[in-house]
Specification:
Structural class: alpha+beta
Helix content: 40-55%
Shape: elongated
Distance between the termini: 72 Å
Largest sheet: 5 strands, antiparallel
Radius of gyration: 27 Å
Number of helices: 10
């Protein structure tokens, strides 16, 4: 699978035109080459089309992106109803990349600036895409200012990017890859570590790491650090006679009052109440 990618997208895409093609007459997509990108998405029919010598059968809700200066043509004459959305835009910033290259871009770059458009996909929420497309089409027909249309076009591209990014992360990231990361966090949890430290250590983009960690574990990295710290704090409360201030420092908190607030938030009781309830040993002081 191939994708059009820009790792430093700054809303450079320019909206050109859009519409919905509908016919009940025999019809075939004519052979053509245009100088802009075209997004095609059937609404309630299957479009048989060839783009760059590759045949596609694009079903309702699926998406094909035809790049500029690319020959594309219909492969079949339709006898029934045909309806599809089309959108033309220009963008000099998109580069064609393989799936492996896209995964690398996701892991290394700022996700807030990344745009990923599939050459073809059936892995997006077509309902959301069609709603956003119809809103953009309404704005176009109302002759809204070009900056307005460009901004909404960027929203649509970000929506497609988000869908594709989620699909690629789920497909290519093995949950077992998180074990070394989780082990490292557990070992270093009592030090002054941050998401950025962890991402740099494992050579991931911090936003990407945060995203995949939460998707696979159900909690964020910051919360994971807290849980490891509080787990050790509970052990110290029940197994030692260290003071609350000493325990706070031992698990990574210089501010003991903050530690006590955090402990109560997660455990519903204060450290002192926890100790009184679960204290299991008696320590004789000399």
């Amino acid at each position: 699978m191939m994708y059009f990618v820009n790792k430093e997208y700054l809303e450079q895409a320019t909206f050109l035109s859009a519409g919905t093609f509908i016919t009940d007459q025999p019809w075939i997509h004519k052979e053509r080459i245009i100088d802009s990108y075209e997004i095609i998405s059937p609404v309630d029919s299957t479009l048989y089309i060839e783009s760059n010598n590759v045949p596609y059968a694009i079903e309702s809700g699926e998406i094909l992106v035809v790049p500029p200066h690319t020959l594309h043509r219909g492969l079949k004459v339709y006898q029934g109803r045909m309806k599809f959305h089309w959108l033309h835009f220009s963008a000099n910033c998109l580069k064609l990349k393989t799936e492996a290259e896209v995964i690398q871009e996701i892991s290394e770059n700022d996700l807030d600036r990344l745009i990923i458009l599939p050459v073809y996909t059936n892995k997006v929420d077509s309902r959301r895409f069609h709603i956003m497309f119809n809103q953009l089409l309404d704005l176009y027909e109302e002759k809204k200012h070009k900056n307005y249309l460009n901004a909404y076009l960027s929203c649509l591209l970000y929506e497609l990017t988000s869908e594709i990014m989620n699909y690629l992360i789920q497909k290519n990231f093995n949950g077992n890859q998180l074990q070394p990361i989780q082990d490292w966090i557990r070992i270093h949890a009592f030090e002054n570590i941050t998401l950025e430290h962890i991402a740099n250590h494992f050579k991931y983009n911090k936003n990407y790491l945060s995203r995949i960690y939460k998707e696979n574990t159900g909690i964020g990295i910051s919360e994971q650090i807290i849980k490891f710290r509080l787990k050790h704090a509970k052990e110290l409360l029940t197994e030692t006679d260290l003071s609350i201030i000493e325990i706070a420092s031992e698990v990574g908190y210089d501010d003991s009052k903050y530690f006590m607030r955090l402990f109560k938030k997660y455990e519903t009781v204060t450290p002192t109440q926890y100790r009184k309830t679960f204290y299991r040993k008696h320590f004789n002081k000399k």
